[in-house]
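User: Last request for today: this protein with iron/sulfur cluster, please.
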Amino acid sequence: MNIILTNPRGFCAGVKRAILIVENALKVYKKTIYIRHELVHNQYVINTLRQKGVVFVEKIEQIPDYSVVIFSAHGVSKKVVQEAVKKKLIILDATCPLVEKVHIEVSKSSEKAIETILIGHRGHPEVEGTIGQYNNKNGKIYLVDSIEDVHNLSVQNSKKLNFFTQTTLSITNTKKIIAALKNKFPEISGPNKEDICYATTNRQIAVRQLSKIADIIFVIGSNNSSNSNRLAELGKETGTFTKLISSFLDIKKKWLKNVNYIGITAGASAPEILVTEVIQYLRKIGAHKPIEMIGVREKKIFKIPKKLLNIKTILDENG
Ligand code: SF4
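Assistant: Here's the final one, the structure of the complex with iron/sulfur cluster:
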């Protein structure tokens, strides 16, 4: 059995930044750090932070006044920010800058009362945060998740219409939805390239290449991770037997019968340690040393908020 590792895989710049924000906050604040929602959608990361004393909550009302709160990488609505301000919380925003970029655009649409369509998955926290940037009663924001949604959608003014997308969608499906939108509303405006981020794009391209060689693909990631799910769907679409696994413990030996090439990738929120553990397990049951595929070298780095770099400010805030 041969192991092939895709490149790039695992942590993206947005996830690295979010974790760095929490680690810095833990070092300098002398109080409990609360995180609204899972910082990133990976159980290993969440458990590790929990062990370090971080408390995860779903609602701002669960946090005592004057506490420190970190918003997850998926971003939050304006309403959530207002609730945090009202409780006089110290806010550290771990929203990925690429999600923030979409927030800014949706806010501009909202200010101008331009009807706006967001392509994204219902119920995903990023989608809730992005929709929550639109708060103009004279306009409206609509969510579409499929071509069927586009067919069922009616707007008030199709001549003045914007669209944006969630950052972690399938490239191919999103292109189809955008084509359906442009077909139905020829005057719609949107980003030149959809808002799908570089990390999602690069990982999907790498899985497509991997599928040409691998007999089986393991996508390492949690089952609530949007970008990991999209990688698993893509693997299946290519016809390669593909499994989303949260760790080596999910692997069933029967899957590896008559398998020559095992392809491994990891979603943008899955740490490399999970990949290492999968490799160790496969080596134990007879696989050769892994081969790294050549792929795009990601150089993106997102800075953490200045506030966290200025330890003096933080110590003053702590009293
Ligand atoms: S997957 Fe993309 S949008 Fe999400 S945190 Fe990573 S870089 Fe940001």
